[in-house]
Design a protein that fits this description.
single chain, alpha+beta, Heat Shock Protein 90, Ribosomal Protein S5, domain 2, Rossmann fold, 4 domains, five-stranded mixed β-sheet, elongated, binds adenosine-5'-diphosphate
Length: 640
């Protein structure tokens, strides 16, 4: 052991990841090359960036990635003259999991294995970019020789068989700047991975768009220029698809390609894609989004987040401009006026593309399923409000199932003559919405209601407020007078008019109910909207919707039950019975029991009843009484 040699243990999560990769039956082992080449390309980008920003003026040999195959030595080497790594960086980057995705990936695969199946997850390896470690799918041992661009940093050699530890030792002083990954191939894979023709094919398949020359045994393989700078008419659909799959590791066809070329107010070219599915595979990398920003073909920032708003973060692609200085610092990108101009142009372009997509209902449905969730968070884009609103889709009472997607325009087309509002209601599910007492009057009048299932929908409605002169109105806030102008279509009220005595007693009963419920309700009143339910809870005028109220309560950790208006349906047989009981004796204890039961049932339906014990106890008591009366009646009627 030389004086500088030191052995390190891999971190536990890396051991786990290596274990999985080494034993993986994953057949597409070639993707290790994609990972090594892309690391080399990153290192070259970093070096070019550092040189451009003047940190390292000594730009020497032309940047390139060399792949050298040696069947006899059973090795494959990937060499770059990029930024290299210091000893500390080696330990940091290759000994620990730098890439949060890899750690999460390892955890998921291990989990799946414990649950008895890993076949599905094997397929994830290809799309997941497990990075450097994927080399252990093909290697018995790996040697990383590297010298950092940092002045005076000594060159290092990192070695490991991937079985738990690695060693680092100093490399010869004449080691050139950059990194060389020497892969000692597993014997059975030597023929495959030392065959130049096969390797060239692999490079073409996965790394064709790398912007640095890739040489296999000295011969240049990738020839594809920066596609986004080509004139549109020269680019074939296959090239777009290839480029998309290069960017995303996704073999599917993107839903849309946008090839954009703008000269004023700022010059840029862009090639953007709308993926057919959520490319954040496991939903764990929500922050891993953005477009790759180039200045005159030099990568300035991968996954730049200033070029498009977050609600369009599903868009993947590259943007290249002539107008920024190469040495622009990453920190100032955000405040840069040119970037802001590109941001606004690109946003409009993407919204325009989505608008075009709406003409193909199936495609747009696919888009909405994949990206609707994130898209909806664009409600705060005031500048593009109309365009944004037109692209929204909702499930509606007029749809035939929960898959239905209704736009605000469709709603307006279907609206009744005289209707000035788009009605919506928050519901846990379509079934619940269909049964909700709050929507009875809408069902009776045949008025369409948009069903909102997610909290974000509520924010969308609250911030849009209106669309094409239609007020977006929460169904529960719709003034009964507005609704009464529409004739009943279904479930007309069939109850007989209240008799004189009952009608006289109604105000007394309502007062008695308020008396019983006390401070739990703000008011008790006869309902104009109910037809099938005996009671429901409504918001006092001028308050936020119940669902917004719930969101706010969760945020402020308020677990108290909100005070609402209890609306009572005087036409319901149950209420009629209670009127009878009340007229006989306003203080009848049964009345109190029944009222509390009705009130808590309404709370339960609206999701506010935290403790059902009292409700259930009362229900059992009532059932005991009712079955007693029932049994007696049966006996008296002679069991007929
Ligand atoms: P990822 O590339 O996703 O971050 P990897 O496991 O592939 O994950 O690589 C870990 C880190 O090691 C990289 O982020 C980079 O800092 C460093 N690295 C890998 N290969 C090279 C290379 N050829 N030159 C310089 N640094 C490298």
């Amino acid at each position: 052991m030389s004086a500088t040699e030191k052995t390190f243990e891999f971190k536990a999560e890396i051991k786990q990841l290596l274990e999985i990769l080494v034993h993986s039956l994953y057949t597409n082992k070639e993707i290790f090359l994609r990972e090594l080449v892309s690391n080399a390309s990153d290192a070259l980008d970093k070096q070019r960036f550092a040189a451009a920003s003047g940190e390292d003026a000594a730009e020497d040999a032309a940047p390139a990635i060399r792949i050298d195959l040696d069947a006899e030595a059973k090795t494959l080497a990937v060499t770059d003259n990029g930024i290299g790594m210091t000893r500390e960086e080696l330990v940091q980057n290759i000994g620990t999991i730098a890439h949060s995705g890899s750690a999460e990936f390892a955890r998921r695969v291990a989990q799946a294995k414990n649950n008895g199946g890993s076949t599905g997850l094997d397929n994830l390896i290809g799309r997941f970019g497990v990075g450097f470690y994927s080399v252990y799918m093909v290697a018995d041992a790996v040697e990383v020789t590297t010298r950092s661009a940092q002045a005076g940093a000594p060159a290092q050699v990192w070695t490991s068989d991937g079985k738990g530890s690695y060693t680092i030792t100093e490399a010869p002083a004449d080691t050139p700047r950059g990194t060389r990954i020497l892969v000692r191939l597993k014997p059975d894979l030597v023929p495959q991975f030392t065959d130049p023709e096969l390797i060239k094919e692999i490079i073409k398949r996965h790394s064709n768009f790398i912007s640095f020359p890739i040489l296999v045994n000295g011969e240049r393989v990738n020839t594809v220029p920066a596609l986004w700078r080509e004139p549109k008419f020269q680019v074939t659909p296959e090239q777009y698809k290839e480029f998309y799959s290069f960017l995303t590791h996704d073999d599917a066809e993107p839903l849309a390609n946008m090839h954009i070329s703008v000269d004023a107010p700022v010059q840029f070219n862009a090639l953007l894609f709308v993926p057919p599915h959520d490319t954040d595979l496991l939903g764990l990398n929500r922050e891993d989004w953005g477009q790759d920003l180039y200045v005159r073909r030099v990568l300035i920032e991968r996954r730049d987040k200033d070029l498009l708003p977050r609600y369009l973060s599903f868009v993947r692609g590259v943007v290249d401009t002539e107008d920024l200085p190469l040495n622009i610092s990453r920190e100032t990108l955000q405040d840069n006026l040119l970037i802001r101009k590109m941001h606004s142009t690109l946003t409009k372009q993407v919204l325009g593309e989505l608008e075009k997509m709406t003409t193909d209902a199936d495609k747009y449905a696919a888009f909405w399923r994949a990206h609707g969730q994130i898209f909806k968070t664009g409600y705060s884009d005031y500048v593009n409000r109309e365009k944004f609103a037109a692209l929204l889709r909702f499930n509606s009472s007029a749809d035939t199932d929960a898959q239905g997607l209704t736009s605000l325009d469709t709603y307006i087309d279907r609206a009744k003559t005289g209707q000035k509002a788009v009605y919506y209601a928050f519901a846990p599910s379509r079934e619940a919405a269909g049964l909700s007492p709050h929507l009875e009057i809408f069902r009776r009048k045949g008025l369409e209601v948009l069903y909102l299932y997610e909290p974000v929908d509520e924010f969308v409605m609250e911030s849009l407020r209106e669309y094409k002169e239609f007020k977006l109105t929460a169904a529960e806030h719709a003034p009964a007078a507005d609704l009464e102008q529409f004739p009943d279509e279904a479930g007309k009220r069939t109850a007989e008019e209240l008799s004189g005595k009952d009608a006289e007693a109604l105000p007394g009963l309502l007062a008695r109910i308020k008396d019983i419920l006390g401070e739990q309700v703000t008011e008790v009143k006869a309902s104009e909207r109910l037809s099938e339910s005996p009671v429901c809870l409504a918001n006092p005028d001028g308050r936020v919707t119940s669902s917004m109220d719930k969101i706010m309560r969760v945020m402020s950790r308020d677990t108290s039950i909100p005070k609402k208006v209890l609306e009572v349906n005087p036409d319901h047989p149950l209420v009629r019975n209670l009127l009878g009981v009340f007229r006989a004796n306003p203080e009848d204890p049964f009345l109190e029991q029944a009222i509390r039961q009705l009130f808590e049932s309404a709370l339960l339906l609206d999701g506010y009843l935290a403790d059902p014990h009292a409700l259930v106890g009362r229900m059992q008591d009532l059932l005991t009484k009712a079955s007693g009366w029932y049994a007696k009646t049966r006996e008296q009627n002679g069991n007929s």
